Amino acid sequence: MAKRKAFTATGIIVGILVLLVLMQFIRIDKTNPPVDPAKEFVTIANPPQDVTLILRESCYDCHSNTTKYPWYSNVAPVSWFLKNHIDEGRRELNFSEWGSYTAKKANHKLEEAIELVENGEMPMTSYTLLHAEAKLTKEEKEKLISWLKTYKSTGS
Q: 13: pLDDT confidence band, cut at 50, 70 and 90?
């Protein structure tokens, strides 16, 4: 009886390892869509350099077509979660497509962005755990929110 349990446990472990190896053959597409600089948020909005830096370090990996895929994007199933997260982020707000948004949609996106940053929901903790440079300091958060509110009030 003891041998059967050991064999079963060993079989389960081997099965899991085989599954993990096979999963590595299902690769994600890491091709970024092309970027038209004329549609880019920073081109259109022309934020100050410090705000541009905040946006690029804390937002653009998930919310633009300029994602920089980290080493762990090569490891399934983490890569699948990451790709889904990036695709969802781009659907919600894509700074590379800003110029294609209607004024109403752009205004709504700004309202959402302000609210999420104010509430500490963006950038996501799951992202900043692995990308410490993306974590906003209190000053960066205030600067970004203030500028976004000013930009929004000028009619974007």
A: confident
